[in-house]
């Protein structure tokens, strides 16, 4: 705790989706009950997937123990999943956190750290097959936010908005979440309406899967290898 506030640590990494980290930081960072900060392998600048420069507040060794841990995703999180120092740090922080959370395929990073074993969880729809490779996780393929005891996981990167309000409702109060939704004028009205596989034509789903496939190079192989019994 910091001055009575809960510590919220957001893990950021090179080539990640900015929304996964910046949306929670924007919304949660305005809540007086929360102290939000970022951490990464290094406090030196690095780039997001679209080239935005990111600078973390802390590195893996200096990050204060959070009450709430948030891990975002990206097109290919294998760089984080395969880094023993990252996995060890997340495992250490997550084991003592009150709430361990992820957005998008950040759930795969948590899964690799063993932090979702025995829990229900979700991820981006195009990565559900990979999360299912972890036998200890009860994977939900069609929920935008999954809260199972002290684990909260969100689907694709735009669900970071829903995630932030759900987290506020869970750790502060539903009233605070309602006020935040209104303050941010969160009233989604998708202009096209194809934001989930259930609402999109099958040919569009296949097209998007084809777009994602080259971005996952090495990830499927890593997940498969990581789940081969010793």
**What is the number of independent domains?**
1
The CATH level-2 architecture is identified as 3-Layer(aba) Sandwich
Helix content: 25-40%
Relevant CATH superfamily: Class I glutamine amidotransferase (GATase) domain
Radius of gyration equals 17 Å
Q: pLDDT under 50 segments (min length 5)?
A: none
* Biggest sheet, spatial arrangement of strands: 2-1-5-6-10-9
Give the biggest beta sheet. 6 strands, mixed
* CATH topology type: Rossmann fold
Order of helices and strands: EHEEEEHHEHEHEEEHHHH
Roughly what is the average pLDDT, rounded to an integer?
97
Strand content: 15-25%
Number of helices: 9
Architecture overview:
The protein has 230 residues and is of the alpha/beta class. The chain has one domain: Rossmann fold (3-Layer(aba) Sandwich). Helices cover 35% and strands 16% of the residues. The chain has nine helices and ten strands. The protein has a six-stranded mixed β-sheet, sandwiched between helices. A two-stranded antiparallel ribbon has the order 3-4. A hairpin with a 2-residue loop joins strand 9 and strand 10. Helix 1 runs parallel beside helix 6 and helix 6 runs antiparallel to helix 7. The longest helix is centred in the middle third of the chain and has 13 residues. It is globular and about 50 Å long.
Provide tags for this entry:
230 residues, alpha/beta, Rossmann fold, 6-stranded mixed sheet, two-stranded antiparallel ribbon, 9 helices, 10 strands, globular
